[in-house]
Amino acid sequence: MARRDSIVFAQIWRETGRAIGSTRLDVRPADRQVEIGATFARDYWRTAANTESKYLFLRHCFGTLGCMRVALKTDGRNVRSQEAIARLGAVREGTLRKHMNVRGYQHDTVYFSILDSEWPPIRTRLAARLYA
């Protein structure tokens, strides 16, 4: 079995020191792939904090880790998250049906991805949006 490393990050709002979310990276070095899953407090949905977080993680995955593919996943019921991931420029790959059992509910997982060849224009667009 290929080695897989999981890293979990707490995301803290600098001005308040308040935890606003968490992100998990499942790193598969042999495949040069990372899977990203994130959760944010409702107050930070559709904010620059969420977008900047994804941008920084993607930049790390492609720039530092040398990934060929980064997958982003979300609960199939979470349409807002799916729209947010699509706005990043990720391509919807498909749905794993009844993929996870969370608190007694079997839910679908929707996967998106960004490939290394797709990253440069996405990086430029996100950086311009965030830091203009």
Task: Give an account of the 3D structure.
The protein is an alpha+beta fold. It has a single domain, classed as 3-Layer(aba) Sandwich (Aminopeptidase). Helices cover 30% and strands 44% of the residues. The protein is built from three helices and six strands. Strand 2 and strand 3 form a beta hairpin. The termini are far apart. The mean pLDDT is 92.
For this entry, give a set of tags:
132 residues; alpha+beta; Aminopeptidase; six-stranded mixed β-sheet; 3 helices; 30% helix
What's this entry about, in short?
With 132 residues, the protein is an alpha+beta fold. It is built from 3 helices and 6 strands, in the order E-E-E-H-E-H-E-E-H. The termini are far apart.
The count of helical stretches stands at 3
Give the uncertain stretches in residue-range form.
none
Sheet with the most strands, sense and barrel status:
6 strands, mixed
Portion in helices: 25-40%
Distance between the termini: 44 Å
Any guess at the CATH architecture? 3-Layer(aba) Sandwich
**Structural class label:** alpha+beta
Note the run of SSEs as H and E: EEEHEHEEH
